[in-house]
Amino acid sequence: MDLRKISSQLSVSPQITPNDMAAIKEAGFRSIICNRPDGEGADQPSFDEVQKAAEAAGLEVRYVPIKAGMVSDQDVDAFGAALDTLPGPTLAYCRTGTRSATLWSFHESKNRPMPEILAATKAAGYDMNGVARRIANGGKTPTETGDAKYDVVVVGGGAGGISVAASLHARKPDISIAIIDPADIHYYQPGWTMVGGGIFEASETAKTMGSLIPRGVKWIKAAVAAFEPANNAVILDGCRVVKYDRLVVSPGLKLDWEAVEGLEETLGRNGVTSNYRYDLAPYTWQLVQEMKGGRALFTQPPMPIKCAGAPQKAMYLSGDAWNRRGVLKNMDIQFMNAGGVLFGVKDYVPALEQYIDKYGVTLNFFHNLVSVDGAAKKATFKVAKPDTEATEVTVDFDMMHVTPPQTAPDFIRVSPLADAAGWVDVDQATLRHKSFDNIWSLGDVMNAPNAKTAAAARKQAPTVADNIAADIDGRSPVAAYDGYGSCPLTVERGKIVLAEFGYGGVLKPSFPAFLIDGTKPTRAAWFLKEKMLPPIYWKAMLRGKEWMAKPEKLTIAAE
């Protein structure tokens, strides 16, 4: 037998036989649904045979036969009625299990989000992306025929999505472009470190989405449910369908707060904060101002995360504030890093280590936060050092700045666009999808091995825009992304170590060393971060003005 669990109450399998009943009973099932019509195959036992053997074993049985490839709305209702009335857990079967998995997907579509359905069936070995449109329609057969259609559809209205739409519109003003994003507010997320350090106000980092969508670009205010790349279609919640000639995927990533037990319940109180959320960054600064002594933990989860330097940026600015107030001697600052190095590009580590010493920071490598007891002010970490057995350690704290684990969004991870790890699968130079020639991706969601930063998206947007414009003209890709990313490490108020690097950790400085030596803390880099980068973001990058962001020419070696 091949029993495949889909939910706590349902498993599916290929054809079973009367001889399987004892094992099915022993596996804990209390009922069976047959979804295979009698007579499909010469070696197939009849339902009557299966029923008699099942009932003899004390199992309840229902016959809901479905013709292959012809699941009607009435079939879904009949399956649901059987599933709802039979004692669980239930085993449903057909020739391969696919019809049973499909019926469950349609039945559950009113109660579960599509990504959860697609993930559950995929884990059982059944790909339901081909019927995603019907799942989005509550399991009913879609009747809508008035699909919207655009030359280019951009999924995601964040830094990458708006920038690439603006850059492409500047190159091809006559083509139709649509951005799909359900959010009302667009955030300048690089500013949240400065909010948590008492330099920016949170309100300075937010603008309405409508004010930023490029003129001439359509904004579809909706959430994406699934992709149908074979049909050049994006399915929205509610089963609306948007079709495209070319697609750009840039929805950012998911902050997986739920992955840390107890974290969501204590965020924003009990001394637990995070600069990774707009509403919590001010609480970081409040805690820093209030503390006169005690233990402060700063956590960093396993990679990849957006802005890999952000966890320690918060730590340095906090240490600087305590130093300025004269209470640093009373503080026990600990950096709890799931990784094994302070920073991934070694050229910047010596400058950072000077500030580790200055603020008296204890470095705890291979420490990954797994649970929080906010009321007791205790944090538990899994310690997994190389070549040693993993252990757990619980640490008391007075303040804890948490960087959450991060993954691709659910609707991306279960889609045909994703690689095995769940990220959009692209060529790292052209940012074109490896399997679908009319799809590109940029920003945090794609799998190129670069730092996930807004500065990276600023460089990626012109690359994607150039390559789409070339594709529209019938030409091969012309631009290459070199992996550029920038991480302005705020080591103290007024000084920054400006880390700029590309693929493989190769340094990619934007300025000559006499202006800004990125391997050392400088006031010039602070001025860039505080005064210049916000207006560059709002008034240049999001408007398609590619200041210091011209893409590299694609060479034979990069193809």
TrEMBL record:
InterPro entries: BLH_phosphatase-like, FAD/NAD-bd_sf, FAD/NAD-binding_dom, Prot-tyrosine_phosphatase-like, Sulphide_quinone_reductase. Keywords: FAD, Flavoprotein, Oxidoreductase, Quinone, Transit peptide. One of its GO terms (molecular function) is sulfide:quinone oxidoreductase activity. It comes from the Bacteria. One of its GO terms (biological process) is sulfide oxidation, using sulfide:quinone oxidoreductase. Its cofactor is FAD. CDD domains: PTP-bact. Residues 2-107 form the Beta-lactamase hydrolase-like protein phosphatase-like domain. It holds the Pfam family BLH_phosphatase. Residues 150-266 form the FAD/NAD(P)-binding domain. NCBIfam families: TIGR01244 family sulfur transferase (TIGR01244). This is Sulfide:quinone oxidoreductase. The lineage of its organism: Bacteria, Pseudomonadati, Pseudomonadota, Alphaproteobacteria, Rhodobacterales.
